[in-house]
Write the structure tokens for this entry.
Amino acid sequence: MLNVAVVYYSSTGNVHRLADAAADSARKAGAEVRLRRVAEVFPQSQVAANDAWAAHLEATREIPPATLDDLEWADAVLFGTPTRFGLPAAQLKQFLDTTVGLSLQGKLVNKVVSSFTSSAAGHSGQESTILALNNTYYHWGAIIVPTGAVDPVLSTPGNGNPYGVSSVSGNRPGHVGEENLAAMEFHARRVAGIAAALKRGLRTG
């Protein structure tokens, strides 16, 4: 059995929709899947001041929070984050900063990893956000799987990012296009397929 974790942060639902699509695709590929959200670290007063943010946090409260056990359990991990000034959201970065112990023990070596993101506008840091996440994966000794430019869905309007799936929200909560969901389906299936092949190879090699 292949274990896939989808670990994400979403403030108003756009990355959450992509994460749901990734989890569904990995299940269809035959994997056991854990969908996990990273904990909110911003003050409650700041969250409450944004109706969409507060509503999404309440709507997804039953999704289990991500733990280090989820990373150790997984053969492959897809990480999702909004773009914040061309960087990952602080909430996801805070979670990644807790992985030092696992990394030093070599428990993240050869994990298959990939990333996806959403931003308010195009050309506002989607690629740099994913590349910034890659810096963490390099230190883990993980194996990064990009989307590449290898499927027609990635060339449809709103897609085309070879680093990892991304969507443009236009600052609208939960605004993810069908072409983005289709790209996410491809992305997760590709990650699961490569992770399964690697797991078989390492077991028999």
User: Anything to note?
Assistant: The longest strand covers residues 76-84. The chain has one domain: 3-204.
